[in-house]
Write the structure tokens for this entry.
Amino acid sequence: MKEQLLIKFAEVFGDARDAQVYFAPGRVNLIGEHTDYNGGHVFPCALTIGTYGVARKRQDRALRFYSMNFEELGVLSSSLEDLKPASQAAWTNYPKGVMWAFQEKGMKLPCGLDLLLFGNIPNGSGLSSSASVEVLTGFILKDLFGFSVSNQELALIGQFSENRFNGVNCGIMDQFAIAMGQKNAAIFLDTATLQYEYAPITLDHAKIVIACSNKKRGLGDSKYNERRSQCESALAALQKVVDIASLGELDEDAFEQHKAVIGDAILIKRAKHAVYENRRTLKAVEALKAGDITGFGQLMNGSHVSLRDDYEVTGPELDALVEAAWQVEGVIGSRMTGAGFGGCSVSIVENRAVDSFIAQVGEAYKQKIGYAADFYVVEIGDGPRKL
Ligand code: GLA
């Protein structure tokens, strides 16, 4: 891989002298969806698929970008003097956003870069290809220019750039999962405090299978920001009667006791999801620690139902994937993962059932939706690194 990337870099940028090769993973969230901007818990893990980057410092202030995933766009040029979001800048808004964020945080970039990327995460799939590019860019800037910044700070910088440069009001989960990833472990993260712990995922008899709906989704255009502000409105109403800083501080009983004050049926459903999903995540991690993978799977299923009925972010494609998965013998749990509105489902499937899972869910999906889904049996991998 490294050799091929360097050859491509030389082809695009003349030669590959002094070019360095890096990698940052994608992520999948096992449970804890739409809780990260509600002060709740999440349970994601980094994957062995992700984004490769080849980078080299320039003598001037220019920026040259090339993506092997968007070859038709050719080399996209910019400059450190022009770090503003622009629609014609396409995917380069992500690395540019991180460069902008570094400078905002006082880390001035001394010179421009040539940067070539190649991602093997399906784009727009809900496996965080954009956060992967953000963390990768931060890691490259840190390494090439010698900034002293921790991986956790790289996650926060990535989120800051996504919020402020790219206009998506996302939480910290994706960038954190990618920057802090650890092989064979999921990250149990309290998004209110950023305290976290690694939970080993040793699935001897099962695999994590991702089903990609192939319905493309742009977070910026989606209802993501709307859901977030609905939760904020519900929280503001609840704060009149309970002393809480976020929905994540409520348990189910307290929510049921006070929910009427929210006063709007839709907002009550949104807040209910945030509260119950956070509690499901706590229970799921407990189940896993106790070796109760069946219990973990049932909580995953419950998460999907709540995202479908109360949070309303699944849509026919993800429902088709997950509801077909629930019918397959040997499926331990299945749910949508990521923001929703398209993207992927994540399922835990017994080894012996993986082939029939792919066949049956693939067939049911095609019948119902009219085009094919893609399946990936994934492994949990480490965070960003130089190759
Ligand atoms: C997207 C966001 C995350 C998180 C998820 C939903 O992936 O980037 O911050 O809110 O959606 O759980």
Summary: The chain has a mean pLDDT of 96. The chain has eleven helices and 13 strands.
